[in-house]
Each structure stands twice: as C-alpha cells, then as structure tokens.
Amino acid sequence: MRKLLLFTYLLISTAMLSAKEVPYLTGRIVDETGLLSQQTIVYLEGIMKAHEDSTSNQLAVLLVTTLEDEVLEDYSLKVAETWKLGQKEKDNGVLLLVAITDRKMRIEVGYGLEGVLTDALSNHIIRNEIAPNFRRDDYDEGVKAGVEAILAAIAGEYAANTTSEFASSDISGEIPWFIRIFMGLIFLLVVGSFTFIALFTKGCSSWFLFAFLIPFYLTFPLIIFGITGGITLFLIYFFGFLFMKLFYFKTSAGTRIFTSLSSHVKSSGGSGWSSGSGWSSGGSSFSGGGGSFGGGGSSGSW
C-alpha cells in the first residue's frame, strides 16, 4: 500500500513539476518573449487602463515563448483564474494569450462579458485582426489590433463583417493538401456510400437518409474543398438527388438502372443502417479584482 501511495505521489509531483508555471502579473502587458516594442506596450497599457477606469473591465495580455506541452485552453484558463482578472461581483475580465513558438493564441472571456464578447466574435477577432499580422511576423500590430478590437467589441462598437469574411476566407487553405486529400477520400467513401444507398432505396427511408446527409454536405466539403468546392458539391448533391428521384428514375432507362442497382443495395444489407455520433459543441501597479472564468472565448493559430 505504501509503495502504491509513494508511486502516486511521485506521479503527481512529476506532473506538477512539468506543468508550465503562471508568470507574475506585473502589468496589463506581460511579454516574456520581448517581441513587443516599448512604444506598443505604453500605448496598449494606456488604452486598457482608460477602458478599465471607465468600465471596471480588466483586459490583460500575455505573450509566452512556448506552452511547454500544455493544452492552450487549459493553460489560458489557469492564467486567467490565477490572475483573477475582472471584478469579483462582475466577472468582467479578458485575457489575450499568445504562444509564439506554438503559433497559437486564445481570447479567454470572463462570465460577465460572454454576452458581448461572444465566442464567435472572439474567433472573428483572432482570424481577421490578429492572425494576418502574426503571419507577417508583425507582433506589435497583431497585438495592437487584437486589443483594440476586443475593447471595441466590449463597448458594442465592433461589427464583424461576416458576409465579406465568408466570401473571402477559405478554411481549406489552413489544412495541408495531403490531409485534405485523405479527408476527401474518407468523405467520398463514407458519405458517398450512404448517398448511393439513399438514391437506390425505396420509400421513406430514402428521403430520411437524404435529409440526414444534408448537414454533412453543408459542413465537411467546405473544410476539405474550400468555399467554392464545398458549395458546388452540396448543390450537386441536393438538386442531383431530387432530379434523379423525381424525374430520371421515372423514365424507362432510369427505371432499369434503379431496378438493377437497388437489388445490389438490398443484397448488401443497405436497407438497414444505423449511425452514432457524438458532438460537443475569455510604472503603475496592476492586479486582478477577483473575477471568474468558465472557459468562454475562442482559440486560433497562424
């Protein structure tokens, strides 16, 4: 029993020693990397202090060299809770964390500000205000743009242009081509098989499966093939399925094809199927005011 307790103690001690420590809160900007210029730090400290003086909201920025194998979200929450950003009664703190070597960042939002600085808005700020500057290694402008956007969002003065973002962004561009090819093959194999079953099955089960597959065609192709390719594939699926079922299979040639292929679906057990999926869908002294965080915010990379 003693050996077991000793082993457990050593295991926990090792984990604690290997965990990345939270730095001291020495100011509103804590830059362990030395990448930010003094001019940028002074400017950001000024606008963040002015915002806090007028609203009591507390925003802090932390730049670290690396997360040291820590999970971004876990470490960000640990920093925010250790620093106790925001007021105790309002939970109105925000942390912008940037890990340079890992090329990751997160906006951690306190309970009290989750209604105005939403997860979606935080994600928009990361993708459209901070990341473009970081990709150019312009960390001064990236952090400056992020802080200004966060303060504007809290004040209700930041409007995310989701229409232009959707039209100009290409999610697939962030994924290596070989991973996209692999994901595309898996998608075509799995979803394509169910599409074939839906197409050559009679009755309500065919239409149920058709509707069931719509969300899959609306999401995964956008990630794998990009905006244009994803929308094109969905339109082909949606209108192509309706055309085949409502018109082509009612012609003599279509009837022969349907009869021939539907027999293969039945013989392979295609009429019975099940699926299971799990989805799980922030020179002067500065200190936190006792605010609380619950994991609200958004993460990103560049």
From TrEMBL:
Pfam families in the cross-refs: TPM_phosphatase (PF04536)
Keyword Signal: yes
Sequence intervals crossing the membrane: 177-200, 207-225, 231-249
Signal sequence residues: 1-19
Domain TPM: 29-152
Keywords: Membrane, Signal, Transmembrane, Transmembrane helix
Designated name of the protein: Beta-propeller domains of methanol dehydrogenase type
Natural source organism: Fulvivirga imtechensis AK7
